[in-house]
């Protein structure tokens, strides 16, 4: 089941139209997303920023099919996510979307390599050996494949999570505060790697962050305030992002 969205360019990886998400009912209802329309270009690294409570995580969850919307639509490529059944959504998430979370979410009893390949295995798919080599070498994990998560640094664990997200060649990788649990050096490593995956592998990455330095690795920053779009910055620097955030009262 897929519909074509008019006005979306072929190179748009993810398109949201008039997204509304309301939590709760009556007087205590919160409009976490209040009519958000935004496109994310394929092969670009976009950061989503905004004050606490502005709707960043809600937007990411709705874009990635981890949460339902009350109105509006999300397209991943030409496929409409918002009209999928639960089964269709599970398949779409498995085949076309990669996730990186703040807490690395690796299985402790598996080696780095087994963790990287787990998703493909569960989907009954074989890894493309050449692509696996590329991903392992770009993430700098070649010497670490036999190690369990507790034998790896936080930065290395997050690079395993990045490799796991990339190995299935997803249309888009969503990252929610991927450096939130890392020291600044490991954080810079992971951000540098995400940057490389966009530049050299053509990956599309959408990252939620509250850190202007992290956002400066992106090609574009989308700003949210009170569940609405509040501007965007192209070729951001930490300073330009910080200034924009101050303007939003963050
Ligand atoms: N499950 C929920 N039930 C009720 N309200 C919620 C729920 N999840 C989020 N909200 C509310 O929706 C709004 C947006 O929340 P969201 O988590 O998307 O913000 P955020 O920008 O990610 O914030 P932070 O930077 O603190 O992570 C907030 O007012 C929040 O309290
Ligand atoms: Mg959040």
TrEMBL record:
Annotated keywords: ATP-binding, Nucleotide-binding, Transport
GO MF term list: ATP binding; ATP hydrolysis activity; transmembrane transporter activity
Listed GO CC annotations: membrane protein complex; plasma membrane
Domain ABC transporter: residue ranges: 14-245
PROSITE patterns with a match to the protein in the record: ABC_TRANSPORTER_2 (PS50893)
InterPro entries: AAA+_ATPase, ABC_transporter-like_ATP-bd, ABC_transpr_LolD-like, MacB-like_ATP-bd, P-loop_NTPase
Domain of life: Bacteria
Name the UniProt record assigns to this protein: ABC transporter ATP-binding protein
